[in-house]
Specification:
The complex is a heterodimer of chains A (469) and B (202). Chain A is of the alpha+beta class. Chain A is 36% helix and 15% strand. Chain A has two domains: 178 residues, SPRY domain (Jelly Rolls, Sandwich), CATH 2.60.120; 199 residues, Serine Threonine Protein Phosphatase 5, Tetratricopeptide repeat. In chain A, 41% of the residues are buried. Helix content of chain B is 64%, strand content 4%. Chain B is built from ten helices and four strands. A two-stranded parallel ribbon of chain B has the order 1-2. In chain B, strand 3 and strand 4 form a beta hairpin. The chains are: A alpha+beta (469), B mainly alpha (202). At the A-B interface, helix 2, helix 3, helix 4, helix 5 and helix 7 of A face helix 1, helix 2, helix 3 and helix 10 of B.
């Protein structure tokens, strides 16, 4: 489908400038595209290191095994510039909470000058990780941690033949951490930006280590570590106090906003009859007045749209809110006509659909902002089973809900008591405003961390029951 | 502080807010989760019909759960224990502390009704071996505490989280703002109940 071509379509443009409120309701066209799956999950599948990079290693001093998972120092070391360094074939993935890998010291060789750490792609391959800026390494012979400061700092125990040592990055806390034989040794702040390569170094004769990029089970319980990190964060979050019963107030406002009148009534009855009754803060009484505007009308029309009774919905709108449907090229009219067309396709009345499309949808062809959606709608006709096609989302319940939401927003915008500067609140329920703020805060923080770490997605939070017990 | 924070203007921030892709279904799911977890069975049922959102758990189990909760709230502890056992006998077996609290509540109700002899007998037989100190046992709020404890235990037994996600997300909003404060200056929402975006105060 034409999924990439129209990313800018929902922005304001003169062709569908149908007056008051239209600007705001345009955003529902973007929502249609959102269901199409445009702009969805920007490639979550990141590549991970799988083996050692044999091309970029310090040739002459070391030999990488044929399986590219172990490395041996074959020379006799003379000075500090003949370290045998080897990086992983790919940088550590960063759209996750942690990255981790391990080495096993097969032989500590003559001096045991083994190091594990992280380096940038441009790292000088004849220096120990940590000796140069923008690198860090945990060294086996002294147990020191080096991070480009010229001198090392006491960090943990030394390690030698038979030890398993791990290096990891915690993107959430922006720290490196190291482990020895399955136990956490310590962590230090990560002040290096950009891609980092897992790196191993050997520096004296017969030193030999093998690397585990996760193909076999780690000695360290990374999942457990992640869980405890998440738990720490969750505990910090749990400690925050919020106004009592704010959840009730938000749910109530949400039901009001979208015109879920029956749910609202049941909710009101229930909160009043519990022992003790739940007191919902009323400080924003004006706001509530506002969102109860036309509640019953909004509910009625929503129900009609949800039942696929588009003609009836249009008739009600003409009767109750003629100003909304007056402009026949408005977003609301467009969405309703699309929906009518979709309903005809749903019940297999294709001929009638074509007729209806020619009559009501053809006028949107060529109008930027509508074009791609019109085309996708018409494309429904070519499938024997449209519900199984890539356009199946049109036939889903969520599409009806979306159209109902657009109509709801349009009706709310006719509220005469609403001041201009408050107009945007027709679109977003109170709850949505808060969720947007939450999402942007998380995204922004992540972007200031070089886009490292997990992204916040409401969808994931809702579908993940296992994080807390 | 020497490190300069990134300054994000209201305009830029609002653009970011508008660019967020939020699905209506997800918000509906969040609201449904609240109704279900808090036990608003009628509202959950209507909401399913009005919004097409599927509840994550059989609504019938809410009715049972709420009946137990209500029984405790009204002081009918025996009745509550029976109902819990009907629902799933393992709940009390695996939660000895909860069972103790329910028994304790039962004693409190006997005392409240002035059935001192019965209370004494009951205490000696059922509670003495476990003995636990507590103040304000006679307060009505103790019923609510016990009721919400049973409620949580039943939810857990149904492999459902015991708290709704909504309050936790609100806390997360405050937390996320605090975290971002360390690195940036941007418009805040300080009052959750109004959702008003406030300009950064410098």
């Amino acid at each position: 489908m034409n999924s990439t071509a129209n990313s800018d379509n929902g922005r304001r443009n003169e062709n569908c400038d149908a007056g008051d409120g239209q600007d705001l309701i345009l955003h529902f066209l973007d929502k249609v595209r959102l269901s199409r799956g445009d702009a969805m999950e920007e490639s979550e599948g990141e590549e991970s290191p799988t083996e050692l990079n044999t091309i970029n290693s310090a040739g002459g001093f070391l030999i990488v095994s044929p399986d590219k998972l172990s490395v041996k120092y074959t020379n006799t070391n003379l000075h500090g510039h003949d370290v045998g360094v080897v990086q992983a074939n790919k940088p550590a993935p960063f759209k996750c909470l942690t990255y981790y890998f391990e080495i096993f010291v097969k032989d500590a060789g003559v001096k045991g000058q083994i190091a594990i750490g992280f380096t940038k792609e441009s790292f000088k391959m004849r220096r120990q990780p940590g000796w140069e800026v923008n690198s860090c390494g945990y060294h086996g012979d002294d147990g020191y941690l080096y991070r480009g400061k010229g001198i090392g700092e006491a960090f943990g125990p030394t390690y030698t033949t038979g030890d398993t040592v791990g290096g990891g990055i915690n993107y959430g806390s922006q720290e490196f951490f190291f482990t020895k034989n399955g136990a956490l040794v310590g962590k230090i702040p990560k002040d290096i930006k950009g891609h980092l390569f897992p790196t191993v170094a050997v520096h004296s004769q017969n030193e030999e280590v093998s690397v585990n990029f996760g193909k076999t089970k780690f000695a360290f319980d990374v999942k457990g570590y992640e869980a405890s990190e998440r738990n720490k964060q969750q505990m910090a979050i749990d400690k925050i106090s919020i106004p009592p019963n704010i959840g009730y107030a938000l749910v109530k406002a949400y039901l009001l906003h979208y015109g879920y009148e029956e749910t609202l009534n049941a909710f009101n009855v229930a909160t009043e009859t519990t022992v003790p009754p739940i007191h919902i803060a009323q400080e924003n009484a004006i706001d509530e007045d506002d969102s109860s505007y036309a509640l019953h009308q909004r509910k009625t029309i929503r129900q009609l749209v949800r039942d696929g009774e588009i003609n009836a919905a249009l008739a009600r709108l003409r009767e109750w809110y003629p100003q909304i449907v007056q402009e026949e090229k408005s977003v609301v009219c467009f969405l309703l006509h699309c929906q009518k067309f979709i309903e005809l396709v749903r019940v297999g009345k294709l001929e009638e659909g074509v007729k209806y499309g020619r009559l009501e949808l053809a006028k949107f062809v060529g109008l930027t902002g509508f074009q791609d959606i019109v085309e996708d709608c018409f494309a429904l006709l070519v499938y024997r089973k449209p519900e199984e096609s890539s356009l199946g989302y049109f036939l889903e319940d969520s599409q009806r809900e979306l159209v109902a939401d657009a109509v709801n927003a349009a009706i709310l915008s006719t509220n005469p008591s609403k001041k201009d500067e408050q107009r945007s609140s027709h679109l977003h329920s109170h709850l949505e405003v808060l969720l947007r703020q939450l999402t942007v805060c998380c995204l922004e923080r992540r972007s200031l961390n070089g886009n490292q770490g997990e992204t916040f997605r409401l969808h994931h939070v809702l579908n993940n029951n296992s994080t807390r017990r | 502080m020497a490190t300069s924070k990134k300054v994000i203007t209201r305009d830029e921030w609002e653009k970011k807010l508008n660019a967020v892709k939020l699905r209506k279904e997800d918000m509906n799911t969040l609201v449904m989760n609240f109704l279900v977890t808090e036990g608003f069975v009628e509202a959950a049922d209507k909401f399913q019909r009005e919004s097409g959102t599927k509840p994550e758990i059989d609504l019938a189990t809410i009715t049972d759960r709420m009946a137990v909760k209500k029984a405790v709230q009204n002081g009918n502890v025996e009745d509550a224990i029976e109902k819990v056992n009907d629902l799933n006998p393992e709940i009390l077996d695996t939660n000895p502390e909860l069972f103790f609290h329910l028994q304790q509540q039962r004693l409190i109700e006997l005392i409240r009704q002035g059935k001192t002899e019965e209370a004494l007998e009951f205490a000696q037989e059922e509670l003495a071996p476990r003995g636990e100190e507590n103040v304000n046992l006679l307060d009505i709020s103790h019923r609510l505490k016990t009721a919400s404890e049973v409620n949580a235990a039943i939810l857990t037994s149904q492999s459902h989280e015991k708290d709704p996600k909504l309050p936790s997300l609100l806390k997360m909003l405050i937390w996320a703002q605090n975290q971002l404060d360390e690195k940036a200056v941007y418009p805040h929402i300080n009052d959750l109940s109004t959702g008003q975006l406030e300009n950064p105060s410098e």
